[in-house]
Specification:
heterodimer; A: about 170 residues; alpha+beta; 7-stranded antiparallel beta sheet; elongated; B: about 190 residues; 4-stranded antiparallel beta sheet; 1 helix; signal-anchor (chain B); SPC3 (chain B)
């Protein structure tokens, strides 16, 4: 075990993290979305989506369509919301949207910012959901919400790093 | 020499590649299959007996702002449709919705709003036959009022798959109706 070997290992690790980061950012560029892959966190779109389902977003549509499932962000609220477009009003310059969760009784008006009646298609959307993959995102939910899983996984990685460095 | 980390890495990579290829194949085949089932040319839908009602609402959750009452629109309708072609092995559910499309008072303004929707999860439930059904939603306009305008009702659908792409479409039948006006108290 010499210094050169350890440095090479460090380099490999940096390479793995960097390539993942570059791939993520490239996907963001292609889809024009700052978060092109989204994990569903709530049951408000049941039975279509459950917690942990993965959505691929696309944000280059000129207009949203009624029935589209869009991901939007509200100023001052950090969590993006995945809901369906209930109404759209568009002119040549802009499009206004009202959304609703399939599993909610009411539209999203109470979720919007104070005084906000509609979403702006250009500025409020993170993207439109185009592709669906079930359940796999539950790993990230476990990582953020379950302490045992998080530290268990970290511990396992640490142990394997120690054991394999011969 | 292969150590544990290498083995796990290779296994993960291969699984990821296999799952990606399989997912892409499933997504492609299900869209092609829908196309050949003719889902974008369903013309057996019938929307009729549309009755429009207008009413005033004072709550913010019905579009009223600054205490001024807002005109809301409601409809009753008959609907029959056969959406069984939308169901195949990769259809988890379909979301069926009745929309009205209309031009605004302002030039160039166009809107599409949902009056009624339904989630269907089984093929057996995909034939709809509604008599004098009430709209699920009260609808208000982005402008002040609907008065004096015509709208076209359409039955649209969206498929949520078990895995793959979301597919949207509408049935080929449209039905026109005129928005009602609020009755003034004399």
């Amino acid at each position: 075990m010499n210094l050169r070997e350890q440095l090479t290992q460090l380099l490999t690790l940096a390479y793995v993290f960097l390539s993942a980061f570059v791939a993520w950012k490239a996907l963001g560029l292609v889809t024009n979305s700052h978060s092109p892959i989204v994990v569903v966190l709530s049951g408000s779109m049941l039975p279509a989506f459950d917690r942990g389902d993965i959505l691929l977003l696309w944000n280059r549509d000129q207009q949203a369509r009624v029935g589209d499932i869009v991901v939007y962000e509200i100023a001052d609220k950090s969590i993006p919301i995945v809901h369906r477009v209930l109404r759209e009003h568009h002119s040549t310059e802009k499009q206004l949207l009202l959304t609703k969760g399939d599993n909610n009784m009411q539209d999203d008006l109470p979720l919007y910012a104070k005084g906000q009646l509609y979403l702006n298609q250009k500025t409020d959307l993170v993207g439109t959901a185009k592709f669906f993959f079930p359940k796999l995102g539950y790993v990230t939910i476990l990582l953020t919400e379950n302490q045992y899983f998080k530290f268990g996984l970290l511990g396992l990685m640490g142990i394997s790093a120690v054991l394999t460095s011969e | 020499m292969f150590n544990l980390a290498n083995r796990v890495q290779v296994l993960l990579n291969q699984t990821l590649t296999a799952v990606s290829v399989l997912t892409a194949a499933i997504a492609l085949i299900s869209v092609v299959q829908l196309y050949f089932a003719g889902v974008w040319s369903i013309d057996t839908t019938s929307i009729s007996n549309v009755k429009a009602i207008a009413l005033l609402k004072n709550l913010r959750s019905f579009g009223a702002l600054h205490g001024k009452p807002k005109e809301n629109s409601k409809i009753a309708f008959d609907l029959s449709a056969d959406l069984t072609p939308l169901f195949h092995w990769n259809t988890k559910q379909i979301f069926v919705y009745l929309t009205a499309e209309y031009e605004g008072k302002l030039a160039g303004l166009s809107s599409r709003v949902t009056y009624w929707d339904k989630i269907i999860t089984r093929r057996e439930d995909a034939t709809l036959s509604l008599k004098n059904a009430r709209a699920k939603y009260l609808v208000w306009d982005v402008e002040k009022s609907f008065r004096g305008r015509n709208a076209t009702l359409r039955l649209e659908w969206s498929i949520q798959p078990y895995v793959g792409a979301f597919v949207l479409g509408e049935t080929l039948v449209g039905e026109d109706f005129a928005f009602a006006s609020v009755k003034r108290k004399s």
